[in-house]
Structures are given as structure tokens and as C-alpha cells.
Write a structure and sequence with these properties.
alpha+beta, 2 domains, seven-stranded mixed β-sheet, 13 helices, 18 strands, 33% helix, globular
């Protein structure tokens, strides 16, 4: 028996899910456009192959030579490229912090046919994290402490044992855990697409030992600006969750005791509780280090998080606490959390993790509200 649940995803902050690709200043132009009656800054992504083919031979040679210069900007060659060569436009949220520091590279959001979407696998991963967080108790956390061992270089966690530990909550004791996982019986569709990204400039806000904050675009006094294609805040997308119930198959696989994980009411409750704890964690962080814009944001989205409309976080900026059970470890067993912290290359005794990746305008990435159309 299958159950189908259509869902609407409302983005409460910009969403970035990387495609592992970037494009440089040789592939885009800055411009202006009218959007809903207002003039806005845009970035035009150019189809270089199509544009190059349109050039006369002498211009082709000049263009090819220009591309060998790593600092080449397309606007230097042709600032008024016809719109037929524009693949898509992005709304620019880039702030001019220094006109002498160029926009060298933009990281692409995952796309299909030049349109952005949220993969179903990202939504499913966030749901699995929330459920794992809900299930784990203090006895389980004690078991985690036995997976951490010391070396000459510091502490490490036995990943083989830890992965086996995770699988024990969702899969049969024997056999291939991927083949016997209860999540095999949950499919989540990729969302529909949007055609116009918002280009966000990123910065980092970091806690300091004296209880203040430090904001920067890069480390070591060298400004290296970072730019991301994002699905903009207040976008609405559609997806679908399909769960398949078959008690006979569950029994044969040895997972009939965890079938309740696929119950929609349980999923919503797990998401709500995990997001509530994560929001409260971020509120504590923002208060402790006097980061007013984060405090304002998290107070606002806390009102959106309900059992019927739970929040989840996906993609870049989700951070360690948003993608693991470490909040619960820290709450239930601080000693084990300290051991976990020591397995990371960089950790700090006054705050861990101590930094947050945000937009230049002060928004965290990745927050979504789910509406289930039951």
C-alpha cells in the first residue's frame, strides 16, 4: 500500500545546494532589469559557445587570446551582448565593499536545464537526521563514546562502527544495510524548478573568546569574496513524499519493528522537535555573542515552526548541529561531546562550532517551511 503526500516548500532564507561547478567573470555581465516595476541589479550568465560562434573570425581570435588571462572580464571585451546569448539572469545581492576587489567566481546551485531545484535526496537526508536525533537516547550516546579512540595526533572516531551504529536504527541486523533500510520505502521527489537565482555574497560571523563577534569575508587579512547562486527567500516549490507499506516485506527483511518511522505524523513531529532545538541553540548563540540580526531571524522563524508546518534545513550553511545529533550529545553527555569535538581538526573550548556562514545581508542559509497537502 502506498501513501502519497504532496508538500509545498516555502523558503525562509536563501537556499544553496552546490553543483560542484563555478563560473568566472569571463562568463557573466552585470546589468539592470525591471522586476515587478522596480529596477534591480542583475547578473547575466552568457552562453559562451553560442556567443563565440556568432563572432567574426578576427574577433574570435581576440576573444580566445583574452581567455588566457585569468583576470579577464567579459565586460572588457563586450559590455552589451545581445539577450539571445543570455542563458539566464540572476538577481544580484552583491554589496560593493571595495571596487578594487572584483567578483571573480560564482558557485552554481544544482540545476537542470539552467533552472534551480531542491533535490529530493537533500530533503530526505534532513528528515533522516531529524528522526535519528529523535530516536537516540542517553544509553546510545554512551555507546558513541566507546567508538572514539586516541592517537598520537589526537582523537578519532571509528567510522565503521559509527556507520554500523546508525544503520542499526533503520536497517535489519543482518544483510546489506542499504537493501534493508526502512528508508528504501520512502521516495521524495525533486522539487519543481525556478529559472532566476539570487546571487548572494557570503560572509562569516564568528564567536570570540571574550564573548563578542567577529565578521569577515575571509581569513588572514586577505579579502577573498565568495558568491553563491541561491533559491531566493520566500520562494514556493512543490515536492511529493511517497511511502510504501508492506508488512510482509518488512517482516522478511527484519525491519517490521521500525515501520512507524514512515508514519507522516511521526515525521512531522520529529522535524518540529529537531528544528525547535536547533532554533533555540542558534538563539542562545546569537544572544551570547550579541549578534542581533541572527537573534531577530531565529525569533521570527520560530513562529513558523509548528507540528503541522515543521521546518527543516538543507544545503550549505546547515552546519554541524543541523546535520548531526551533536546537539543531543552536548545536552545529554557533555563529556562525550568534548570527545567528539576533539576529533575535529579545529576546535575551541569556548564555543564549538564557533562560526556561521551567512549572507552579506545577515541571513543564515537553508531554512524551509513544509506545508503538507493531506
Amino acid at each position: 500500500m502506498s501513501e502519497v503526500h504532496d508538500i509545498t516548500l516555502q523558503t525562509l532564507s536563501p537556499i544553496y545546494i552546490g553543483a560542484g561547478k563555478e563560473y568566472g567573470a569571463s562568463e557573466f555581465l552585470f546589468g539592470k532589469a525591471k522586476l515587478k516595476g522596480e529596477k534591480v541589479d542583475i547578473i547575466k550568465r552568457i552562453d559562451l559557445s553560442k556567443y563565440y560562434s556568432s563572432l567574426p573570425d578576427d574577433r574570435k581570435d581576440k576573444f580566445t587570446d583574452s581567455l588566457t588571462n585569468s583576470k579577464f572580464e567579459l565586460s572588457q571585451f563586450d559590455s552589451k551582448i545581445n539577450k539571445e546569448f543570455v542563458r539566464y539572469n540572476g538577481i544580484s545581492k552583491i554589496k560593493c565593499i571595495d571596487k578594487d576587489i572584483p567578483v571573480n567566481e560564482i558557485s552554481e546551485h544544482i540545476k537542470t536545464s539552467d533552472k534551480l531545484y531542491i533535490p529530493g535526496s537533500s530533503i530526505k537526508g534532513s528528515i533522516k537526521t531529524a528522526i535519528f536525533y529523535d530516536i537516540v537516547d542517553d544509553e546510545d550516546i554512551e555507546e558513541i563514546s566507546h567508538m572514539i579512540y586516541s592517537t598520537k595526533r589526537g582523537r578519532n572516531i571509528d567510522n565503521r562502527k559509527y556507520n554500523k551504529f546508525i544503520n542499526s536504527f533503520f536497517s535489519a541486523e543482518r544483510g546489506n544495510p542499504a537493501q534493508t533500510s526502512i528508508f528504501r520505502f520512502m521516495q521524495i521527489a525533486d522539487t519543481n524548478t525556478i529559472k532566476r537565482p539570487t546571487i548572494e555574497e557570503t560572509k562569516t560571523v564568528m564567536a570570540t573568546p571574550d564573548g563578542r563577534k567577529n565578521e569577515f569575508y575571509s581569513r588572514h587579512r586577505t579579502i577573498v569574496r565568495s558568491f553563491l547562486e541561491t533559491i531566493p527567500r520566500n520562494s514556493k516549490l512543490k515536492s511529493r513524499i511517497v511511502t510504501n507499506y508492506d508488512s510482509n516485506i518488512y517482516y522478511r527483511l527484519g525491519i517490521d519493528d521500525v515501520q512507524g518511522i514512515l508514519d507522516l505524523d511521526y515525521i512531522k513531529k520529529a522535524l518540529y522537535n529537531f528544528s525547535k532545538d536547533l532554533i533555540n541553540y542558534e538563539l542562545d548563540f546569537s544572544k551570547k555573542y550579541k549578534i542581533s540580526y541572527l537573534n531577530k531571524f531565529y525569533n521570527l522563524i520560530s513562529k513558523h515552526n509548528t507540528i503541522d508546518t515543521p521546518l527543516l534545513r538543507v544545503g550549505s550553511g546547515s552546519g554541524l548541529m543541523g546535520t548531526s545529533i551533536n546537539m543531543k550529545i552536548k545536552d545529554l553527555d557533555p563529556n562525550t561531546f568534548n570527545q567528539v569535538q576533539e576529533t575535529f581538526r579545529k576546535s575551541y573550548d569556548y564555543e564549538f562550532p564557533k562560526s556561521r556562514k551567512i549572507t552579506a545581508g545577515g541571513l543564515p542559509f537553508g531554512w524551509i517551511k513544509l506545508n503538507f497537502n493531506e
